[in-house]
Amino acid sequence: MNSSTGLQALEARLQQDLDLLELPAKAWVPPRQYQGEQVRDVVVIGAGMCGLAATAKLLLSGIDNIVTYDAAAAGQEGPWVTFARMETLRSPKTLHGPALGLPQLTFRAWFTAQWGVDAWEALDKIPKAQWMDYLVWYRQVLNLPVHNGVRITGITQQESLIALELSGAETGRVLTRRLVLATGRSGLGGAAVPEFLRHVDRHLWAHSADPIDFAQLKGKRVAVIGAGASSMDNAATALEAGAATVDLLIRRKEMPRINKMTGIGSQGVVHGMFQLPDSWKWKFVDYTATMQTPPPRASTLRVSRHANAHFFLDCAINAVTQQGDALLIDTTQGEMTYDFLIAATGFANDFHGRSEFAALAPHIRSWADGRYRPEMGAPRASLLQAPDLGPDFAFRERQPGACPILAHIHCFNDAAMLTHGKVSGDIPAVSAGADRLVRALAASLFAEDVETHFANLQAFDKPELLGDEWIDSTPLLKQENGL
Ligand SMILES: Cc1cc2nc3c(=O)[nH]c(=O)nc-3n(C[C@H](O)[C@H](O)[C@H](O)COP(=O)(O)OP(=O)(O)OC[C@H]3O[C@@H](n4cnc5c(N)ncnc54)[C@H](O)[C@@H]3O)c2cc1C
């Protein structure tokens, strides 16, 4: 078996499964126009893993007047082959991820179809570029309507519809009834940048999600802030590129060692977290943030195997000062001098940080706007910023009536975690998240068109019985009874 015939056979099996399950379901949403312009039923922004899973689930559910846009070129979506600097995924290879309950759509099926069972057994973790290859196949085999190289630059209200401004490979505007923001970790804000870096010249530092020319770091003294996976990946990449020294500046007294949320992962967590009272949601997410997720062991060893790598714990940064082409960093362990700094400081849900959300941002209700109550626990800034979403992932308005289209804009990305649990960011439960999202979209599109559906019910006149299947015996009975 060569890899392409293996893949062809897999694709045939997938097609058979879809046929057996009568998927995709028949299209059922009545078409809409606005002043002669076509109106989409759903637009998805982002064709990373979450956007692909949502798009696939919509199509399988018979909602086919949809389109998905991604600013990135095809095959470059998300972090995997851009700013992800790990060698492999952290996740176990067996996760079924975006497969939506279809065994032939899993990474495992895709891998074994091409390289066989022995190679599967030998595989430890999934190389990150291979995960991207799988996502490319996923999109192709399901024929998902993804348009690449198109950035959404503005989102406004057009009566009851949502108007999107496009730039790049397609321009102009597109109208849609529902919008899904599958815009990723940075998708509702961007990189979280510590205050002490804001005044520092950009040629001396980068965020871990920036493009970084690591070759330029050869022979340089590099500092990396943080103790998470991204700090290890960036430190290791700098070391492998020949940096003179790489220091990890870690505020904590100890490295986090236990991956708490992964430890309790279960279908209970996937389906139950979002039904819990808000106080419990806060407790879980706040505790997890306090304990922090450790970097993977392999990523940490990838750094520590270099003699010129140093881990400085209990080393908080007080200030960063530019001194010519160097950085003087004042830390709780004293002053240190570097040529370059990488801030592996994560992402923020600051809606004001993204121009495409400018018209919506002032109206989006966050947990700080009343959903958080002090008795839930300490007021952690990153959680207070989280959007206060409905059960359908839709945003809510700060002032009722000020921006009604928010009820039709669904936040299917990492920012949904506090309200929904981890179903719209990481690999393990993305299919459950896509299912929850699409059920809600189907219900709301159906409800909005209820008059049309009722009219269709009344107008439907295809008989099942033709009238020749039975004889009415009542006249005979009447005759017998003398009536
Ligand atoms: C470095 C790294 C490693 C990770 N490793 C793992 C792991 O091992 N296991 C795991 O479970 N999770 C992991 N994750 C978490 C998660 O799985 C990934 O972040 C994943 O990419 C999330 O998918 P997504 O679709 O939400 O976002 P993304 O994959 O980031 O996709 C978002 C897409 O939206 C597009 N976009 C955004 N704004 C616009 C716009 N205005 N117009 C058009 N397009 C737009 C972007 O171009 C992008 O392609 C990792 C995350 C990172 C950052």
TrEMBL record:
This is NAD(P)/FAD-dependent oxidoreductase. Transmembrane segments: none annotated. It comes from the Bacteria. It comes from Candidatus Pantoea multigeneris. Signal peptide: none annotated. Keywords: Oxidoreductase. The keyword Oxidoreductase applies. InterPro entries: Auxin_biosynth/cation_transpt, FAD/NAD-bd_sf.
